[in-house]
Design goal:
This protein is α+β, with helices and mostly antiparallel strands. About 40% of the residues lie in helices and about 15% in strands. It has a six-stranded antiparallel sheet.
Length: about 210
């Protein structure tokens, strides 16, 4: 996770622009976090910052702008085992409310969590938050060595191979040509379907899902 921290750290000092104009680098973060409809730097952007950094690392965020959406991202980690780059989620307003803040764990000092995050004082900075406001520490699920080793993507590949081989098997069996044609059409439909869902399977792999 430390590579996430290093990527995020490069943005320290990035600030909102006062007045009617908006910092294009912050606006670009909304786009990178799948919320390109936001065209200003005044909309709360802590979750957009996290999503954009994850994207730069080849990972997927939640695609949402509410900080608490990251409570369902990755897997939970004890605060005592947190490392730089883990994602930390805090509550704002009330613990059981909807408001929150999200950023990257930087350290722990004097009962406070040091957070490298966006929209902290209208900038990317390192700020401190009380441990009492911490909701969760999240870490990406262990990723397989490559897409080829992913059970999710393997399932897709198997489906493609099976569908493509069906007409060949039928031909070898010397069945009527009408049956071969029908199987060929079915194979084409299955191939198209697997192509459509492959994008979602790749997203799951990037999140570390198997």
């Amino acid at each position: 996770m430390r590579h996430l921290y290093e990527i995020a750290k490069k943005n320290v000092g990035l600030k909102e622009w006062p007045g009617a104009k908006h910092n294009p680098e912050i606006v670009a973060m909304f786009e990178a976090a799948d919320n390109g409809w936001v065209k200003d730097d005044e909309t709360p952007w802590c979750a957009a910052f996290v999503g954009a950094i994850l994207g730069q690392a080849g990972m997927s965020g939640t695609g949402r702008l509410n900080a608490r959406s990251y409570l369902n991202w990755g897997e939970a980690v004890d605060l005592a085992k947190a490392v730089q780059g883990d994602i930390v989620v805090f509550w704002r307003g009330t613990r059981d409310g909807w408001q929150g803040h999200v950023g990257f764990f930087s350290g722990l000092k004097d009962g406070k969590v040091q957070v490298l995050g966006g929209n902290q004082g209208n900038a990317v900075s390192i700020a401190e938050y009380p441990v009492s406001r911490l909701l969760s520490v999240r870490r990406a699920k262990p990723r397989r060595a490559s897409p080829a080793q992913s059970r999710t993507l393997q399932a897709s590949g198997i489906a493609k191979i099976a569908s493509a081989s069906a007409p060949v098997v039928a031909a070898v069996a010397d069945v009527p040509w009408q049956t071969v044609a029908a199987l060929g059409g079915l194979a084409a439909v299955v191939l198209i379907a697997t192509v459509v869902i492959d994008a979602e399977r790749m997203k799951k792999w990037r999140r570390g899902d198997r």
